[in-house]
User: Fold this.
Amino acid sequence: MEQTKQAPVFHVPSTQKKKYKSSSASLTVSRIFIYIFLIFLTLLCLFPFYILLVNCSYPSSQIQQGFHWWFGNYFANNWNKLFNNSGTPVGKALFNSLWLALVNSILTVYFSSLTAFATHTYRFKGKKFVENFILLIMMTPTQVSSMGLVLYCIQHGLTNNYWILILPCIAAPATYFYMKQYMDSILPYEVIEAARVDGTSEIGIFHKIVLPIIKPALAVQFIFCYVGNWNNFFTPAMLLNEENMKTIPLIISSFKNSDPRTFDLGLVYMLITVAVVPILIVYLIFSRSIIKNLTSGAVKG
Amino acid sequence: MAEKTKKDLSPEESILSPYGRLRLKIVNKFSKNKGTKSRHKMVNYAKYGYMFLIPFFVIFFIFQLVPLIQTFYYSFNTYYKDGLDMVGPTFCGWSNYVKMFTDPTIRLGDFFANTAIIWICGFIPQIVVSLLLAIFFTDERLKLKGTKFFQTVTYMPNLVMASAFGMLFLMLFSGVGPVNQLFGTHISFIDDVWWVRGILSFINWLMWFGNTAILLMSGIMGIDESLFESARLDGSSAWHTFWHITMPLLMPIFVYVLITSLIGGIQLFDVAYIFTGGSGGPQMTSNTIMMYLYSLVTNAQDFGLSGAVSVFLFLITAVLSVLVYKTLIPNYSATKAEAKARKKRMNWLKNAYSEGGNENGAD
Assistant:
């Protein structure tokens, strides 16, 4: 780099022109290679899901016989078999997963915003300490720290209790930080002060003024929380063992020991589809804002 | 209580419009000689700050701190289920910790090694591919089309239920599964040590490379564009630019990705548990450390020993977390530029965490 810096200025046009020409040719070549690479990765990401969808439209016997490139017509049968079987309550598990994830994400988003509102708006003694303390909690990994809770519940016979899965969602440091950052960037103190002067109560300010303003952040965090809760396996696996209280991941786990040679494969593919596809559809609908949100980290600073 | 209804406004305030009151308030705020009244108000509002923090901290103390302290306590006790009876808790000093490292039946070292192998085989390709993608997506000269599409697709596996992923791959790689059908082979994947480890690493790679690529991309986008510009004008090659500009400036974020992935790797559970049917693969060669802890809690119900293992894991991950914090946010801020960079990294970090980046490789 040092050497090229010392090159006389009047040489630049000719050399640059030459360089530009050769580099544009090499750019095209590298562009082609990059596209091939990207398409390869895309296929790798999509192929498992394609097989999943294709195979859940065939009966078990045909799945074992050979590879299928295109969809069959057994989809509805597999669907009915999955939800009407007597052994595992898939419908109930689906319902459990749906409402549990919904309640958990609403609690997480609401209380994280409230906590963020408290540290964003008010000045009080120990505020700096509170902020640093929450940052410290955020750093401790979730699975290892939830181990303590699991041990506690098993010792005290608190298993098969949804409250143990719901209530801890109120303290979600990562969501808190997202909300805090969003409020810092978008919510001026004057707005709160004006509402206060109008005679709105403090909690009223939060409900009527702040929540509507931070709606986009609420939506994004709600999606992330919902996906996280929907997919959650580790803690529920240790705390829920009653058939009727199980969630979808636990039902999937109960199939893990069955031998693929004797089991109804169409049913299992259907179960995985039910667990995976709703989330993927929601993701594809909101993917634009989710990806934008993911990349915004550096730009915001 | 401290909320102001129209009645208890002072006469001076009551004649003003809301806007006028706001202005009065701002004037009061910035005037040097504040009245006792405004000071009184500050105290009142601070009360609300504390009030709104109560739910978070109450829940944190009940559901995280108390159980954590209890785990610490039980790790120093003999406390396990023997048949239907509970033995203990009786204080036993460090014996659980000694047992954990020396008892040959526990094989904690093997499980650590399994976890490490699966993590490394997934992480190296993950970081290479992610770095390539991040560079391709941010390169000004390449002007790739459809980057949004590729980002969307490669990020997608990250949102898929990890246990469903494990089950799906168990189906795909079964003896009569689609992979064997497609290649006309009859390999028994789930009975081979390295196939099982390799597939687990592959699933981890598939789930996380898109996420990492986006994190690194946002890191590269945060680098001052003029640096790349001047390097280009100086005739620096792409390779040279990468090693001398991109990489050094990306280092903090690179370290973040490495350590969070390591923390996630230690917590590897869902995929391995489902894929191996809870057995840990052939001769438990794919039994991860978390799977061992799981069996200690659910089958053996040995709270003393599982407490000791949890505390050990907690300490390792806590040290790693502190390392992330130290690399990304150095305590000194000598110049204005350094302070700005620090703030930027801080924001990036919080953002990365709130999008689930801290679970890198976890499930």
In short: Chain A touches chain B through 123 residues (CB under 8 Å). The radius of gyration of chain A is 27 Å. The first helix of chain A runs from residue 2 to 5.
